[in-house]
Amino acid sequence: MKDLPYVNLKVQDLDVTVEDSRVTISATVPNWSAWQAAYNTTMYTGGVIDVD
């Protein structure tokens, strides 16, 4: 995942865990747009079947 500067979100601010193609993202984000950008970027990554 790359930094998402348009929503002021850096990859190093995210704690990402993957198990059986399911991704869990833990982070404090500045706003809804940042959350949605992180979710969408993760969900549309090849091999990912679910994001929590």
Could you walk me through the main structural features you see in this protein, from its secondary elements to its overall organization?
- The chain has a three-stranded mixed β-sheet with strand order 1-2-3, covered by helices on one side.
- It is globular, with a radius of gyration of 10 Å.
- The chain has one helix spanning 32-43; strands spanning 15-19, 22-26, 50-51.
- 23% of the residues lie in helices and 23% in strands.
- With 52 residues, it is an alpha+beta fold.
- β2 (22-26), α1 (32-43) and β3 (50-51) form a beta-alpha-beta unit.
- This is BON domain-containing protein.
- It comes from Chrysosporum bergii ANA360D.
What is this structure, in a nutshell?
With 52 residues, this protein is α+β, with helices and mostly antiparallel strands. Helix content is 23%, strand content 23%. The chain has a 3-stranded mixed β-sheet with strand order 1-2-3, covered by helices on one side.
Identify low-pLDDT runs.
Answer: none
Q: Number of helical runs? A: 1
Number of strands: 3
Order of helices and strands: EEHE
Widest sheet: strand order? 1-2-3
Distance between termini? 16 Å
Using only C-alpha atoms, the radius of gyration works out to: 10 Å
> Biggest β-sheet, characterized?
3 strands, mixed
What percent of residues adopt helix (DSSP H or I)? 10-25%
Protein name: BON domain-containing protein
